[in-house]
Amino acid sequence: MDKLRLRFKKTGRAVYISHLDLMQTMQRAFSxxxxxxxxxxxxxPHPQISIALPLSVGTASLCEIMDFKLKxxxxxxxxxxxxxxALPEGIEVADCYEPRxxxxxxKYLRVAGVFEYDERDGEQMAAALRDFYSAxxxxxxxxxxxxxxxxxxxxxxxxxxxxxxEKSAELEAVISAQEPTLNPELLAQxxxxxxxxxxxxxxxxxxxxxxxxxxxxxx
Amino acid sequence: MDKRLERILPRVQKxxxxxxxxxxxxxxxxxxxxxxxxxxxxDTYEIGMSxxxxxxxxxxxxxxDFVWCERAFAPWGDMYEEMKKAGIPLYALESGDxxxxxxxxxxxxxxxxAYTTVLDMLDMAGVPLRRxxxxxxxxxxxxxxxxxxxxxxxxxxxxxxxIGEGEEMNNELLTLFRQAKxxxxxxxxxxxxxxxxxxxxxxxxxxxxxxxxxxxESIRPRAGAPEKVTKRIVxxxxxxxFPTNPIVPSTEVxxxxxxxELFRGCVRGCRFCQAGHIYRPIRAKKxxxxxxxxxxxxxxxxxxxxxxxxxxxxxxxxxxxxxxGLLEYCESRSIGLSLPSLRxxxxxxxxxxxxxxxxxxxxxxxxxxxxxxxxxxINKNVTQEDLLNxxxxxxxxxxxxxxxxxxxxxxxxxxxxxxxxxxMANQVLHCWRENARNKNRGVKITISTSxxxxxxxxxxxxxxxxxxxxxxxxxxxLRSSITARNVTYNWHDxxxxxxxxxxxxxxxxxxxxxxxxxxxxxxxxAWSDYFSYERxxxxxxxxxxxxxxxxxxxxxVDELLPWDMIDVGVRKAHLIHEREQCYxxxxxxxxxxxxxxxxxxxxxxxxxxxx
Lengths: 219, 611
Known about the structure:
The complex is a heterodimer. Chain A has helices at residues 19-32, 79-85, 122-133, 185-194; strands at residues 4-10, 49-51, 60-68, 91-97, 108-116, 139-144, 147-152, 157-164, 168-176, 202-211. By secondary structure, chain A is of the alpha+beta class. Chain A contains four helices and ten strands, in the order E-H-E-E-H-E-E-H-E-E-E-E-H-E.
């Protein structure tokens, strides 16, 4: 069967399943649901599945994408329910379809984040955060393959807004998902490096939606 | 999820092992059960989730509708620190609820080095360590597993022990405990009644007296507790509960596969082997049962591997029929089938060829002793000829790596026997030169040695253990005897073995040593990352106990042993006879050739031992 694409959510306890473990979990779920994945040819055959943007451990997502191939023809409309029933708590398949575009065309990611401040006021923090992120450039030190390097994360932030809560600030942002890839955790990391007073006591993120380069929904 | 936990998890290694939520976990409505039970495994998630016994008992205990059995494991060091710092008590994976609110804490203990972890889990759960400090009915703290055949070192920490196989016994015990809880019994009342269940050992009902030389004077049961607690077994394995829908971990564990247990017990009777004696009598499952359970489990888990478990897989009579049946399902689905514990003597290359179509990596042989005389003395029925024949076929078939496992310090071992290990490796090398299909790939022969540990309920339970200095001398003797370049030698260090020897044959006074080691920070000591010999040494001296008295002292056969109130089926007279055979360097026939009337068959309640 031709390439198929799944859109799935990964929330709750499942956010702690690492990318590699998720591949294994998916593979087993297909088998439990009674689908046989197509294997690659060659010396060390492995099932042909790929997940578009690896998700950091601890980050939730409502918009994960996984491409795969089945050995035999199957009723595509039945896949989401059958697969969800075979998956661990917190992973839920939303839909399954034949993809019309390559995963490489995925460009932007809408993320929600919560910056928790145990001892600080949300209003004040939200205001200061808006200020911080309106700067022309935000250059942070970042580990690269060749040791430490510097990178400006500002161009990778297409839009960002903050809403004050009692002891936290909630952010929503559209960031570059590929070329360059901006891990949303760097939004908190930038504060720790450049404005320690604004650094949250805890930050967590959820991927909400994915877009192409024209900000059309990516499917 | 607990807010504090949410902050910690992203910082620790492999957080998925601390969250629960896996496929096939059992969730119940806690308002509708009478007993909340935490099934505690005193090691990491990766080890515990690989344990077939744990998987079976999780399901059998959950088959009771009034019990919700959840799992708890020992957190690795980083998580442990974080939980302490944040003040998070040990919690059960399914519900995330703290263990301090549970009715029952049940420990599965397979290994003496887990004792300090047991204490640590009790402490992390906020439960008093010693049973004398738990006078209330709740919580009930009990333990089972192979380490319970000598329960004494941790007898002061447990309300009771279940001796033997838990499939039926645990549920009887929990049914009684539910009644006690609902009717508001005292703990003492409950324990006295529980002692009437076959296989239940209640240490508080046994008074122990010591002689001036430190050995036992008497074991005095009271309140109607049986003089001997007889091990409980499941007679009919085909009809015993077996979960074909086990939990599938969402993160990698040690044995990430479907486990099928071919039979319990062992026909071989190697004299150093505790497992070979305490799991008797022999009870096999029918191949049809195993094929059915295997296929069902594969379907329900999505695993890509099946392993056949037993103490000696080659001794399963219908092995070929079983493999054919499983392969018929597995081959077309690219599911791997592996068979550990094959013996060198009736090793079937044809079978191996069938199983390992792709990878031909290593062969492992537990030879144990370096000479035929010593192997006869320990009743390890493997000859050099068998081993070389097997190697010849393997080398000709393309294998190019052989591992040979030995023990040093076995009773009657001489320097000649040790040099014999090196000679045997040379013979294997010679065999490779004569038989290898492609010599360009080279060969790797690895010798491993560990220090012999005398274990309760084995024919060597009275034996001395050599000192760690003597072990090192023997290691060096072997090292200097190995000349061939293709032979590598790895030796396990003896420090853990000495502690394990002291613990495995310990009495009740050992509890203070274990507690002291825990107080000094000892936990997860089965891991070399966390083991400290000095800490144990210090604890022994602080508690005024002599490590050598427990580890290295040879016992006389008429000495009352701390575990003599436990009857595992095999009679003491059989063990004594086997020990005498050792000193005469005489083999005993295996159970299939001739029944030795070891005594275990009487546990079969009319059924027949499959020896």
